[in-house]
Amino acid sequence: MNDYASLTPSIDSPPQPDSTPGQIFARLSRAAGIMLVVVVPIVVSPWGSDGYNQVKALAAETLAAVAVIGWVGAALTAGRPSWRFTAAELPLWAFLLAVLLSSATSVNPRLSFFGAPGRYEGLFAYCAYVALFLVGAHSFGSHQGFRTLTQAAGITAVLTSAYGLVQVFIPPLFGGEVFIREWYSVPGIARIPSTLSSPVVFGGYLASMIPLLLASSVARRDAARLPWLAAACLALIALALTLARAAWVAALIGLVVFGIAAGPSPWRRRVILIAAAVVVVASVGLLVSRAGPPAAIWWHVIASGDIGSGSVAQRVYIWSRTLGLIASRPWLGWGLETLGTVFPYDRASLVQVFGPRPTIVDKAHNDLLQIAVSIGIPGALAYAAIWGAVVWSAVRGWRRAGDESRVLAAGWLAAIIAYLIQVQFSFSVVALAPVVWLLSGAACGWGADSALSAGKMMK
Questions:
Q1: Secondary structure (3-state) at 88
Q2: DSSP category for residue 364
Q3: The whole model's pTM is what?
Q4: Cα four-point dihedral sign 40, 384, 209, 29
């Protein structure tokens, strides 16, 4: 019996009047984890200059602390869950060590510890991410535990998608939303951020959630499959309205991976055809009628192929100068959240690439480069190894799983691949990263649990 199940009363067993301290702590850890995947993407603040990331960072770090307290409390009082080694164990600790050393030698310790205003991905945030990975592995590391998390995350994806569609028809509700919608809208086109702090982040979030929503539909054999299919269609329509091109590509690749990994079946083919038809018709209608004129939308889409202008030129400009900064401090980097202060600004070239609007480059717009310039090349290699281990664990879990579990594993494999693709053209954010780290830990824990069960069966 796996650790998750051992701490959860059986459905058929009579209710226990007095719960043990170990059970109470275990429930606290799981409740905090479930709350995190629900609260962090949704929570916003209508007060202050930052209505999004500040409150999300506070929520993520608070819930991570509660989840760790529950996990450690259960281990101390009940001896369970016992320590579970996952595929990402060694690179995870190496990455945390690099983060700690880099923060101690940062060119701006305050930014590296607490995070920059509007971002909040300093030392405390990354410690919370590592803690959430471990909580996922130990408190949700089973098929049932991972499915519980994905269902909670799926319900949240429905809520955020619905609000994103509502934003097409209503004006912004508070000052922070006004700023975000105006800042990210391109001439003649309105883009929707929902509650995820920007259309780019919202698109990345949906690209990761859509395969899990489809998996929740395909894996079922009852009437509940239809609401999950509708949820996936809703999320796809919302994704189209973000006009986040990297997220579009990531979602497409994720759907291809899911279609291959989930395996052939008449129902699955019908799911894909129905979803595609609904999404294409609804998305085109809303884009043309509400987002902007077709010519402006088409120009925005094809601009991705022009490396001499637009967002592509901006990213090439940032990447080239970030590589120079990495070469200057290759071992421990400049410190978390310090790129905005050390970036080699040149007003003339900035105006040429970004236009006359004031520009601060505080993110490399490539997750691996951002980590390398922040904590050094060794830390970046450990970081890459973490995600390589997560993908490898997903593939291994998919191969070993059967029936419903295989479909869910296929959905997770597609989800993590979509996330990793889009984040290489964007960056980690507190609105999405905590959810991904927790799910990654749970999936790796599930893989470790499956491997242990298979080993016992062979004996």
A1: coil
A2: -
A3: 0.91
A4: negative
